[in-house]
Amino acid sequence: MRYSLKQLAVFDEVARTRSVSKAAENLAITQSAASMALSQLERLLGRPLFERQGKQMTMTYWGAWLRPRAKQLLFDAQQIELGFYDQHLVSGEINVAASQTVAEHLLPELISIIDKDFPELRIQLMVSNAQKVINRVRNFECDLGIIEGRCDDSRLVQEVWCHDHLVIIAAPHHPYAKMETVSLAQLEQAKWVLREQGAGTRKSFESALHGVIDDLDVWREYEHISVLRSLVKNGPYLSCLPYLDVVQHIERGELAALKVPELNMQRTLSFIWRADSIENPLRDCIRREAVRMMKDRKMEM
User: Fold this and answer.
1) 0.70 exceeded by the pTM?
2) What are the two backbone dihedrals, phi and then psi, of residue 191, each rounded to the nearest 5 degrees?
3) Which residues contact 61 (CB under 8 A, 6 or more apart)?
4) CA 20 to 30 Å from 292, out of 22, 62, 137, 221?
5) CATH number assigned to the domain covering 163-267
């Protein structure tokens, strides 16, 4: 074997940061040492791994091919080292990206379970909308993503975790809140405030509307769910949000859930990861404990 783990570590960090200087800083080595390790690796493999564009480094085809294989080797090396220090097999750090609803309502309980049963497993959490989660996983920024709705990227594996549903909400003083059911025509006449394009909630809502409502009067789009809730509470708007994000406000009488029999608002919450990644016990542990958590919830109901 002509290449070293140090060279692979430099390559992986340059691929992540797109910068030799940043990679050197993160690995606590000099920039010249990082440049030398990367040059040696490229010379040994006989292929350019990056295209230099000013100070930015962009992976070539060969770099993209090497990245998941290098990450697996580095992960295995870490597991060997931890094993010899008598640590648990499930130990180390994993980067997880999740959408807002999952991060706020499901992950705190899951992380608490993992902290209790697998104290050496550290979860670094990033919260984004569904499209940004997909991008993070695809670009190797995260080992595991949790999204709402579908992922059509063939480079990623999607595995359903559980189901939830969306609800259309209005203020209690809104005229529609007093109706037993609301028609599709009435929805078209309303003023809407919705999640931004790329959000899983927005994609699921638009999918439910496809073929039944041609156009909505969308006044505002916001990333933060709390902003949308407040706008609906204090204004003449409708919105569509996950049930988990509004159930407490509905129970307190601050919001009203509208019944629209023609719309199917069910959707899935899913795990995603790169299809070319190799077995990862940390990722498998999170998925396994997440499924077990939802089964325990159903048994308690």
Assistant:
1) no
2) -95, 135
3) none
4) 137
5) 3.40.190.290
